[in-house]
Amino acid sequence: MCGTLRRSEHHSSDSKLVIDTNPLEFRWQELETTLASSKYNRKKNALEQEFVSFLNRLSPPKSLDSASLREIIYFLIWKDKDSKTQVHRDTCQNQGTSSKTPSSCGCPQHLAFKSVDSYIGQLRAILRDHLETTTLSTTGDPAPNPTAHPTVKPYSKVKCNEIGPSLIIS
Q1: How many domains is the chain partitioned into structurally?
Q2: Is the torsion defined by CA of 92, 97, 98, 100 positive or negative?
Q3: Is 20 within a domain?
Q4: Is residue 75 a contact partner of residue 122, using CB atoms and an 8 Å limit?
Q5: Mean pLDDT, to the nearest integer, of 41-63?
Q6: What's the CA gap between 86 and 103, in Å, rounded?
Q7: Are 98 and 169 in contact (CB under 8 A)?
Q8: What pLDDT score does 108 carry?
Q9: Is 110 exposed, middle or buried (0-12, 13-18, 19+ CB in 10 A)?
Q10: 66 lies in some domain
Q11: Strand partners, 96
């Protein structure tokens, strides 16, 4: 027992122990509030709202229940519009230079590999939580999570290779 002695409380089998659940409920609410206010959860909730909005604007509109691998990849590609990482082409005059601000050379800006990887992890958690509570397959099991599909990881590797050889300006 790891060298610790525990005091054993024995209750007679005929005694009726009444547990006050009010302090337990209060503590549960404290834990829920702490969890909901964490930086990761705030980012995940914001990403979920953005993803749901993206799905609603597709033609035809989709929901979290019907999101497929294709919509996950489309969303990640769409997120490139918010990118700050400039990837200079081999032929660019700025290749090999260092600057904190993106140059006007016309080279594309992409999400950094770590951002893509983070989004994939957050989307996996969002869909896992949603699908576990709302969708059951015909076998009664939760529906498969499209972010767990083997194609998603190679997408992030492609993003890494796309950015890797170039000088990256963040």
Answers
A1: 1
A2: negative
A3: no
A4: no
A5: 93
A6: 8
A7: yes
A8: 79
A9: buried
A10: yes
A11: none
Q: Looking at 41-45, 50-54, 64-68, 99-103, which range is the least confident one?
A: 99-103
| Sheet arrangement for strand 168-169 | 109-110, 85-87, 168-169
Would you state the structure tokens that stand for residue 76, as one six-digit string?
């990640």
Per the model's pLDDT, the better-predicted residue between 8 and 87 turns out to be 87
Place of tokens 């893509």: 116
Domain with 118 in it: 39-169
First to last CA, the chain: 52
Which is nearest to 66 in space by CA: 131, 126, 129? 131
pLDDT tops 60 at residue 136:
no
Nearest to 162 by CA among 103, 87, 78, 92: 87
As given in the structure block, the two tokens for residue 27 are: 């503590």
